[in-house]
């Protein structure tokens, strides 16, 4: 065959053993059905048919379209591919639209993507994917949408705080748009631009201090190939005097001074509070220490007084036990003097006052005797009204005819009666029985056959034997 001349050969040098056919420089025209015919004798002839398919890698391209905002539904991009077998085309995008695929007679596959252009679609992805058996993965043709739209101008730089004589003021015309505007025009309504201003691109610069005559409505016109947009701003420049500026400075200085003084006052108050708190804590500790010392001193004094009372014989006849009274009576008989330094009192008073030593002891203890006698007198007088009642309630065993208790009662009654007896009458006084009974009834009661002192709110009961409190 003329088409295979020089391109076809057997792979092995012995075609009988290996009849593999090699086709070099494969062409699309080589695609056909090939038949292998074998003749043998006497077995006969054999045939085998093989279908040859020739693949051709796809050739693809993508043609983007520049869109403008406001246009109708139209073509946004076109993707084409050629290959054997025929490739398959698809779109990878997140913008809304529609695709149309068609195949021509020469084996060209075309896919078109249509959409309604918006400025929000500018810069979005619109990729074409080519699918073919000879490719391990689809081939991606990257594309970005381009949508032109008019600029969106805004005048910036004026913050409503311009004042006369301010320096470095300027206005800027800032706006988007695709493509970006390169032509800017500045005007002022009702009048031309003031002297002393210059235009540099999108900037209107005041090269001198501001004047009151610079007020007005300034307009900026931004233009690109899609359209023209205007923006404006009303500039007001109030007049300020040096006095007002000085007043503002003084106000600021006053605010700073007041703030500093307030801060200093707060710090001083905090320091004072801390110092006062520490002083009160120290004072409280000192007072507690002094109070503790006072308590200790009072306790010591109380112990000393208790020791003195325990070491001395009680002068209250209502708190003595029978044993104490007996011991006191025996002591008086032996020493002729009681614990207060007075002469011993017996049922019959002696007519003589005693020796000089007795008078000396009475002079030393006169004050103590006076207090005891006054106490006994007051106690006896306050209880006279109840004498008959106590006498009736006293049981028969409370006889004071003899024994130590009779002597003690007689002594106590004698102490109460000595106050009204003069020195001359002292030798002739004899205690009456009713006085002894009255004293016993007023100050003692019988409990289980034992005569005990009656409780009294002013009485101090001491044990007959000394003890430390």
UniProtKB/TrEMBL annotation:
It comes from the Eukaryota. Keywords: Disulfide bond, Glycoprotein, Membrane, Repeat, Signal, Transmembrane, Transmembrane helix. InterPro entries: Ig-like_dom, Ig-like_dom_sf, Ig-like_fold, Ig_sub2, Ig_V-set, Nectin/Nectin-like. Residues 58-142, 151-236 form the Ig-like domain. It holds the Pfam family Ig_3. Signal peptide: none annotated. It is found in: Membrane. Residues 290-311, 343-369 are annotated as: Disordered. GO terms for biological process: heterophilic cell-cell adhesion via plasma membrane cell adhesion molecules; homophilic cell adhesion via plasma membrane adhesion molecules. The keyword Zinc does not apply. The chain crosses the membrane at residues 252-276. GO terms for cellular component: adherens junction; membrane. Residues 299-311 have a biased composition (Polar residues). Residues 350-369 have a biased composition (Basic and acidic residues). This is Ig-like domain-containing protein. It comes from Electrophorus voltai.
